[in-house]
Each structure stands twice: as structure tokens, then as C-alpha cells.
DNA sequence: TTTGTTCTAGAAAAAATGTTCTATTATGGG
DNA sequence: CCCATAATAGAACATTTTTTCTAGAACAAA
């Protein structure tokens, strides 16, 4: 049914990440050049620049969240630690998506002019994360602010010390763990 | 000696921060409108868009560093803690500069095309910070990576949970302190 | 007051960027 | 083999954004 597509979304998203890191901004011309895809194809698939940016953002957020929620739900000796360590692992294993999440600005990636269905989807994902964190905080009898700091703020702050210039070292996990455990310990 | 200037750098930098937060990007037209300054004046003072961005970035970095280095040098019961708490304080007391540092991308603010003297100045500032952190790590006999995480990564990750949408709450300091102390404790 | 200097003002020009459009290519089904 | 469909390609077009340029305003010193 029709001509098959000649490139993956993933390839374009990687180009977006690359531009974000190299030039600090996403120009369509730079994306097409990097990904080796024509402007016509970009518009055919994503509709507009806004659509492309929103798609890249959504893809990265969803991929991260899948791992994060799974880790948060899995039973552990130290509840929450696995979830905190998802961030550095994600940065090592899915560099492109991690770069979009760490160096992309939300207001720029998912602007007011982005397709409404995509904005809705993002809101849904955010609500899901929020609910999961609140449930965790309740179960553990810890303040929500501290849980957010431990599971998101600290790991993100940690990997940003390296990205986008350097790879996230394995040794970072031990330091993250130390900080996270201190935050997730009740008094 | 010539006509006096009718606006402060600060006013323009605040407009840059505002654009960064509101639109996720810095358009000169938006800056001139927000700051109430003509394009002619912007070019007269900053030379180009790149020059303006570099100036705003440099101003924010320098302001932060002044406080950070002072705190790091001041004697304390818990060495380094005061330095870690500079970040949330900076976000409360110098919001515009904090927004530039937290939401601006370095590659965009200080691009390759920025004035060479400004790029040099930034390199000098970075070298200064690096040296201070290394000295601190040596004195405290702690790994440099852990010191960087404690004094920069954690506080930055913490305030980013709030900025740019919300104010950084006072209660955050206690949580940051907890995490930082666990990282700065040997063994 | 005149002169020299520095700054502001904003429209015009130039450059860069995003979008549309038509032609073309690749695939499957009738 | 021909048709319908769906995708690619890239030049032409439209829009947006940056930059330049000329005129004029504010101030100090002579």
C-alpha cells in the first residue's frame, strides 16, 4: 500500500538531539542535512516543525517513563533506589533520547502551537508520573518534595554534570545511591 | 561626554530571561519589546545578537560564581554546605540571572560566534571554579566527582524541580543539606 | 552657542528559516 | 500491466528574524 518509508522516526529524532547539542537550537535545514532526509518527507510525516519537535519530545518522555515506572513498581530492598538509577542507565543506553530530555526546553519542544493530541498525550504521561510518585510517597510515608528530589532531581542533576559533552560514568551510580538513600530514609 | 544611556544592561538581561522562559527562545524583537529598548540601542551596546546573549550569560555566571566561591572559602562546621546552599539562595534573590543559568543552553548563549574576548572571560571563570573545587576536594580528601555532585549537581537538580514555573521553597534547603552532607561525609 | 561625542530610534534592507507545491518514485492489488 | 496509494525530493515561495543605516536627541566642554 503505497511507497514504503525510507527512514525511521528514530533517525530524525537523533538528528534533532544532535542539533540541540551542537548548535544549541533546532533548524529544520540542519535536521534534514543530519538525518539525510528531505524537507518534503519531514513535512509529510510530522506536519510541521512544531509537530516534529513535539514528536521527538513525546518519544523521549515516553521511553523514559516506561523504565521509570517499571523500576518504581519493582520490589527492592531499598524502595525507590532502582527508579533513581534509571536516569543514569537511560543516559548510557539511549543517548539520543536522554540528550533531548536533558538539553531540550519543554516550552520549545512542546509549544502552544504543537498538535493538540500530542499536548494531550504529554499531559496524560505527566499525570501518570505524578500519580506514581504520590503513591510512592504515601506508601513510604515520606514528603512528596523529598521523593521528587531523590528520584528525579538528584539523578538528573548528576547526569547533567556530564552530558552532553561526556559519557555518564558507571561510578556515578554509587554517588547517586548514597544521596538518594539519605533522602529516602525516614529520620 | 555624549548622551547618557537610558537603560541598564540588567533590564535587557531580564528581558532575555523572560523570553527564555515564556517562549523558550530569544528573539531580538521580543527582547526589545519586553525591555522597551530600540534595536538600534541593543546593537549599539552589544554589537549583535550573539554579543547580547554572551553578555547575559557572562553576567549570570559571574554573579553566581562570586557568591559560590565566597561561600566555599568561608569557614564552617560542615565545609561545603554553605556553597551548596548558594544555588537555592541565588534562585530566590536573583531570579533573572538564575533563570538564565538554569534554562539557557550554553551552546546557544555563548556560541562559537560570540565575541572572542567574552569567550575568553568565560573560560577564565570556568577555570577558576574548577580550581576551587579541586582544592576543596583535596583538602577534604574526597573524590572530585563526589564534590561536584554535592556542590553543584544536587543543588542544581533540586532547584530545577521548581524553576521556571514556581519559586524555590525555603524548605528545599533542608533536603539539599541532607543529600549534600551524605555526599561530603567520608566513608 | 557651538562642537564633538555617545546614545537612541525605527524604518529599510538583508539574511535566514519555515512551508508549500509539483513532480517523481516505490509498492501492492485488481 | 495499470491503477491507486503513500511516500520521497527539492526547488520555489512566504515568512520571520537579524542587521544595517540614517536621522536625531542628550550631554559636556570650549
Descriptive terms for the model:
elongated; mainly alpha; 187 residues; homodimer; DNA-binding; 72% helix; 0% strand; 11 helices
Describe the protein's architecture and organization.
Two copies of one chain form a homodimer. With 187 residues, chain A is an all-alpha fold. The first copy, chain A, has a domain at 57-184. The first copy, chain A, is built from eleven helices and no strands. Chain A has helices at 9-22, 28-35, 39-46, 49-73, 81-84, 86-93, 95-103, 106-109, 116-140, 144-159, 172-184. Chain A is elongated and about 60 Å long. The model of chain A has no long low-confidence stretch (mean pLDDT 97). The interface between A and B is large, with 38 and 38 residues. The structure holds a DNA duplex (30 and 30 nucleotides).
SSE topology sketch:
2 copies of one chain form a homodimer.
Chain A: H1 9-22, H2 28-35, H3 39-46, H4 49-73, H5 81-84, H6 86-93, H7 95-103, H8 106-109, H9 116-140, H10 144-159, H11 172-184
Helix pairs in contact in A: 1-2, 1-4, 1-7, 3-4, 4-7, 4-9, 6-7, 6-10, 10-11
Chain A binds a DNA duplex (30 and 30 nucleotides) through helix 3.
